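Friendly challenge for the regulars: who can give me the structure tokens for this chain first? No prize, just bragging rights.
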Amino acid sequence: MQFVKTTFFFTLLTFISIGFYACSENVQTDFSKAELERLQTSNPDSAAYLYEQKPGDETQDSAVTRFLADYWLEKDPQKAFYYLNLLLKKKQMIDEDRVVLIEFLLNSRDFENALLHADTVLNHQPENLKYQTLKAVVFQESGMNDSSLVLLQHVIGQSPYNAELYFMQGINYFALNDTTQACMMLDKSISLGYHVQDSVYSNLCNKTKLILE
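First reply, four minutes later:
Bragging rights claimed.
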């Protein structure tokens, strides 16, 4: 079950996440602003190195701070958290920054703060299905599967052909010990193109996967 949740969680985060934009302002280096902007795409390692060679520069421009948070997210999550926290303290954090922060908090199993930030982005954009789904993820990861299920029912009603949502709902039903509904959700997700390994499906539903993907 943990394997299934983890696999879906990172798939969903890929769906709901966006790339961070970054453009340097007033960074005193041997490179022009335009050159640094190009480096962020063509050679992010060099761009990050150059920004961090000037103590303080990376904290003065929110776009640079945002670039460094994104750059370090997989390489050094604690360092990424440092930059995200700078954005938060300087009141420069935008909703998409919070999405990345929520990912960090979930990986750190800090469910209370993850839910707090999920509430914040949803309060800013209450009709945003991506943020509604994100909050459902937080509910699910924190073991609040009944709350996740209710929220997902609404999201699925607005986006009835999203296979990942049915898969996620299936996990909620499994956690709530409703195997019949859970397998119905998995069947629906598979029929819409979501890949579920045969062995995983068989173990969860105690039957052979009959629907061809």
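The radius of gyration is 20 Å. The mean pLDDT is 81. Your move, everyone else.
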